[in-house]
Amino acid sequence: MKHIANLLLTCGFLIAALRPGHADDLIPDDVIAAMQAADVVILGEIHDNPQHHLVQTEAIAAIQPSAVVWEMVTEEGAQRLAQKAATNPEELSRILRWAESGWPPLSMYYPVFQASDAPVYGAMVPRTAARAAMERGAATALGADAARYGLTVPLAPEDQAAREADQLAAHCDALPAEALPQMVAIQRLRDAVLTRAILRAKDETGGPIAVITGNGHARKDRGIPTFLTRLRPGLKVFVLGQSEDGVIYGTFDAVIDSPAAEREDPCKAFETGN
């Protein structure tokens, strides 16, 4: 917990915990002001925490972005949505084929979609590309853009080891050692695809751009911001991380803490016989 407290202080903001279900003024004024001054605002989350999506909803309403990039939406889904605007959750779910996506219920995300009329940009990595990243590496899966996004260059050994350790912990210490490099490759691929969508949205709409993604992709020390810094160093990027009960990993410009969502122990799925 000491590490977490230090992280929150070094981010420049120490933000009070949120009350469950409280939907007014979830974000302090100074954080809102910092978001409004940025070209790209990356809004991290733990996917199945409803409170995190309320924070994102408030942020997007304040930012009024020219586009919103979604980790949870495919490029094809975004194109379908552009052709036929959804007027209710059921229609949105059909257009985006949400039930097939494997994400938490759309009801959690629907307020975020409603917060802005800006175009939706999809950055979800299709299953075929994820499999290619596992089998042949992230560079092969991204194709012609791989060198531009740095995927043809291996990570430094200490960085690779740290990321593999994180993947092992995230999967309840149940993954075989040979699977860990594959999981890191997929993560790098997703970071690159998200970054590519952000830059396209910025070029096509002018900005500011809001990004809905998990904390792991949002973190400044490893995720999307590292790609943006290299590819477009003039962009002003603001990164919000969202913790549960004070726990978060990585570096962010600000962190908002919420109570942990009620969920089954995810490690049960890795137990023998399940």
Task: List key phrases describing it.
Rossmann fold, alpha/beta, disordered N terminus, 274 residues, 6-stranded parallel β-sheet
Architecture overview:
By secondary structure, the chain is of the alpha/beta class. 45% of the residues lie in helices and 10% in strands. The chain has helices at 2-10, 29-36, 50-63, 75-83, 89-96, 106-114, 127-136, 138-142, 157-170, 180-205, 215-218, 224-231; strands at residues 40-43, 67-70, 120-122, 209-212, 237-244, 254-258. Strands 3-2-4-1-5-6 form a 6-stranded parallel beta sheet, with helices on both faces. α7 (127-136) packs across α10, α9 packs across α10 and α10 packs across α12 (224-231).
Which CATH architecture would you pick? 3-Layer(aba) Sandwich
Our count of domains comes out at: 1
Given the helix and strand composition, which structural class is it?
alpha/beta
CATH topology: Rossmann fold
Question: How far apart are the first and last residues' alpha carbons, in Å?
Answer: 32 Å
Strand order of the largest sheet: 3-2-4-1-5-6
Helix percentage: 40-55%
| Average pLDDT number | 89
pLDDT < 50 stretches: 1-12
Topology pattern, helix = H, strand = E: HHEHEHHHEHHHHEHHEE
How would a crystallographer describe the biggest sheet? 6 strands, parallel
CATH class: Alpha Beta
Count of DSSP helices? 12
Percent of residues in beta strands: 5-15%
Number of strands: 6
